[in-house]
Amino acid sequence: MPFVHVYYREGLLNNEELKKVSNSIHHSLIEHFKIPEDDYFHMCLPYPSNQFFFDPNYLLEGEKKRSDKMIHVSITCAPGRTINQKRNLYQSISEAFYHHLNISTTDIFITLNESFAENWSFGQGIAQMVNTEEEKD
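Request: output the structure for the sequence above.
Response:
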C-alpha cells in the first residue's frame, strides 16, 4: 500500500521521463517490497528551483556532490520490511534512474515513512486495510 511522492525541479523531466521515473519506482517496489502490481499510487510534483535548498555533499562518499537535478522520492507504506529490503529498494530505484534517465545516483534522495493500516483510506471514507474486529474498542 505505498503512496509515492516524487519531487523534482521544474523543467527537469518531461512527461515521458516522469512515466519512466514512476515505472522504475513501481517495479522496484514490486520486486523488493512484494507489493501487488495494481497497488499503484504515485504523485509527481515539480518545484521551482528557488524553493529547494540542500547541502551538495551531506553524507555522500568521497568527493561526490548533488546537483540541481536532485530528485526526492518519498514513499509512505506499511511497516514490516527488513533493513535489507529497504536497502535493496533504495539501490534498485537509484540504479533504475541512472540507467533509464541518466540521473546520477548522488541526485536520488529517498525517504521511507511507515504508517499503520488504520491510517489509510483508499476512498469511500473506509479504512479498507483494517479488520472490522479490531474496531471494537
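Residues 3-135 form a domain with the Macrophage Migration Inhibitory Factor fold (CATH 3.30.429.10).
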